[in-house]
Amino acid sequence: MELLAPAGNLEKLKTAVLYGANAVYLAGQKYSLRGASDNFSNSEIEEGIKFARDKNCKIYATLNAFLHDKELDDLSKYIKILEDCGVDAVIVSDIGVMTLVQENSNLPIHVSTQASCLNSFSAKFWKNLGAKR
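RESULT FIELD:
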């Protein structure tokens, strides 16, 4: 079992880690449905990962927005940034976003609750596409 906690900013990430989270999910400034949160700059993601690693905690980055073609332009670059920073996995909702993650990284993919995966057939569908969780 894994205790997964949200982190809307760096302070919340540190608090979740210090209080025993096994993993924390965060959002960058684009490509996420966590628009109401402060969200993380790239340098804050790096700092958060270093802090979490010292406490044996995993970091997942949300890429769970549903995107139109014009919104995909810089996503490949951002995926590489996440991979280079060392996130443990990305959380996706959109099959197109999932495809870009697979084409541009070796990051494990987790399916977001936003994807409405509510039955075993949906779970098998996502697994067959390459989702790890």
